[in-house]
């Protein structure tokens, strides 16, 4: 293997730059030529390849976003689009690819490998932490810390004014961010897509909590099956029927996906990046490099996509117990 390429795809997650840096420097360390592909699969189709040197990735380990840009590609969803991408890789004599992204990216990578046999290894880059085959995904720790900082500030206002606050955090299909913010931020309740949200029970608990607490904080994952934080707040407000209480909603939004990665994310990203290149050199493919129980492991894309990583039962129990 002489030439490999790396790209970021789907969204962006803090730590992607640290991962790119590790891929580039590990490749150079082993004497490989390394190319960066801009704008994910779209860039592959359009031939957006650029040779990278060690100094191409200087001073980025601490930066959020991705220097390779990120994109979602409709064209790659078609056989014709993937054929164009393959032709571009052939033209540039690329023999292996590192894909940094989430489960959508890995789904595309798996299809691509099955059709054209180009060796491809993934690194888990998503703030949602919803990928099987790694205890944590790159960006999750930073997103939780960003959301937690905001929640701490919101708590000050909630306490000062005796308010009930609903804070919406990211997580289209997953409650990992909500659960960790809920535990770390001392939330009274956390609503997540993985479990049924029982509003009747919540209203009952809020009524009884009124005796001991003057303010409450509820964290809602954006993908909760009951609806948005705004919608849930209106429903709870209607049922609680407490004219003296003020209800407020804060949606944290994309601030959770930006910012400098935490130490944990930088280290995880660097380990996964190095492991992806090691894996390609060792002849691995169609899999993701992740970290489980402290060790790097390679998990087939099929499992990363097909298997779910359930929320920890004891985390959910913790929230219930600590909120009394
Ligand atoms: N079934 C598929 N076939 C081919 N490409 C796919 C498929 N699913 C996803 N992709 C590609 O992966 C890209 C990123 O997926 P997306 O779900 O948007 O992000 P993420 O990787 O963060 O989950 C898509 O824009 C598309 O180009
Ligand atoms: O507005 P966008 O860019 O589609 O992103 C929103 C989505 O991004 C996510 O945070 C996931 O993003 P990443 O996979 O890139 O980390 C989801 O929880 C959220 O629904």
UniProtKB/TrEMBL annotation:
Per UniProt, residues of the Phosphofructokinase domain are 3-279
- Pfam families named in the record: PFK
CC annotations in GO: 6-phosphofructokinase complex
Q: Where ATP is bound, by residue?
A: 11, 72-73, 102-105
Where, by residue number, does ADP bind?
Answer: 21-25, 155, 186-188, 211, 213-215
User: Subcellular localization, per the record?
Assistant: Cytoplasm
User: What biological-process terms (Gene Ontology) are attached?
Assistant: canonical glycolysis; fructose 1,6-bisphosphate metabolic process; fructose 6-phosphate metabolic process
Q: Give details on activation and inhibition.
A: Allosterically activated by ADP and other diphosphonucleosides, and allosterically inhibited by phosphoenolpyruvate.
Keywords recorded for this protein, A-Z: Allosteric enzyme, ATP-binding, Cytoplasm, Glycolysis, Kinase, Magnesium, Metal-binding, Nucleotide-binding, Transferase
Binding sites annotated in the UniProt record for substrate? 126-128, 163, 170-172, 222, 248, 254-257
Residues bound to Mg(2+): 103
GO terms assigned for molecular function? 6-phosphofructokinase activity; AMP binding; ATP binding; fructose-6-phosphate binding; identical protein binding; metal ion binding; monosaccharide binding
Primary location class: cytoplasm
- EC id: 2.7.1.11
Provide the coiled-coil residue spans.
Answer: none
- Tell me its cofactors: Mg(2+)
Q: Which PANTHER family match?
A: ATP-DEPENDENT 6-PHOSPHOFRUCTOKINASE, PHOSPHOFRUCTOKINASE
Q: Tell me, how does this one assemble?
A: Homotetramer.
Q: What does this protein do?
A: Catalyzes the phosphorylation of D-fructose 6-phosphate to fructose 1,6-bisphosphate by ATP, the first committing step of glycolysis.
Q: Under which name does UniProt file this protein?
A: ATP-dependent 6-phosphofructokinase
Organism (species): Rhodonellum psychrophilum GCM71 = DSM 17998
